Amino acid sequence: MHPKLTDDLTGLPELLTATRDAAERALTSLDTRPVAARARASGAAPMPATGIGTAGALARFEQRWAPWFSGSAGPRYFGFVTGGATPASVAGDWLTSAYDQNAAAGGDSAAIGLERETAGWLAELFGLGAEHHGAFVTGATMSNFTGLAVAREWLGEQAGISVTDAGVGALGRVPVLSATPHSSVYKALSMLGIGRERLSLVPTLPGREAVDVDRLAEALEALDGQPAIVVANAGTVNTVDFDDLRAIVALKERFPFWLHVDGAFGAFAALSPRHRALVDGLVEADSVCVDLHKWLNVPYDAAVQFTRRRDLQVAVFKNVAAYLPPPAGEPDYAHLTPENSRRLRALPTWFSLTAYGREGHQEIVERTTALAARLGRWVADEPRLRLLAPVRLNVVCCTLAANPTRERVDALVRAVADSGEAVVTPTVYQGTPGFRVAFSNWRTTESDVDRLARALDRAL
Fold first, then answer.
1. Rounded to two decimals, what is the model's pTM?
2. How far apart are CA 455 and CA 320, in angstroms?
3. Where do the coiled-coil regions begin and end (predicted)?
4. What CATH number should be reported for the domain whose range is 357-459?
């Protein structure tokens, strides 16, 4: 054994303690260190030939890289839709690496059983039925990819074609309809060979990001009976708008289509009695995307995808080899997801759900939505800003009240980041440059909202 490996194995308890101490320093400083970090310009260092051991690597990391990492795990990182990591999920993530299970096949490990249990808990959390089967993937992009891959196979089934054998070209032009699709949907269509241009945008309701269901019906009618894929939104990125899922489901009585719901973070509305009606009809979806490193507050990367048609999912993703069990009965995850090698990313979620339960995660959802409403009221009362849309859930989308050019909005966003107090994300909504503030971190409190408001005030 290499002498550095021997030294590290001998000193493993001390190394784990030192790593824990480094993690503690990082987490306990989130409230005081700058939220945004401007990465310093530096060239890549040469790869060590001999190595300096884990203790040396830790010291070098803390000197060379750690100071330039953002505070994205903290309570005032309001960019994109970024959660933090609850203490329980951090423990689960550390143990994920320590146990180092490949959660692809279950012949010699209980890892797959834990993932199945956790996916079942999540289905219950989101109000899905027993017919929905879940699997963990890396993020919303792969969750949408997996759901749409199953949808593509369903289209083949309608035409009497096995797309997994004949290829997507056998389908001809594939109609995909959506009103405000996330960028990952386009990416998934590209990877699936369907093509970005096959997505037809359906008009939205006036002043909304939600689909006009009557116009969707017209688009389906124009297909003259050709099966299609409909991608519905349970929470858009800019304004957290929701398509009327129940009304879309009703269209299935008249038209043949696969309903994929992108509920990356909006599906968490199901946890709150006040907002649960927003996802009414989700249980009827054919496939569902949910991103867990957002509002569930587990470490990157973790998402889950659900589908009703596990048989079609196996047809797409089955992995046949002499050393693997065939996909009979309850299939292994090697037959259900794009990856053959899969870390046990269900474990942080299992820890967090076990530690805090439904009630704990409901509290996170309800507190952060209340904080978004608090900021929304402040923006409405601030004459130099204006809301671009109502605060429906956990995102505040707003802009400058006067002359909201891209340059002026970007300058405001940079000034907030440069203050070290917070991070917000620039965007464009209905042609108007603006910025959005997303609340999803479990640590965020009213004082963090007030600090953001003061940073905005100084930057205006």
1. 0.97
2. 56
3. none
4. 3.90.1150.10
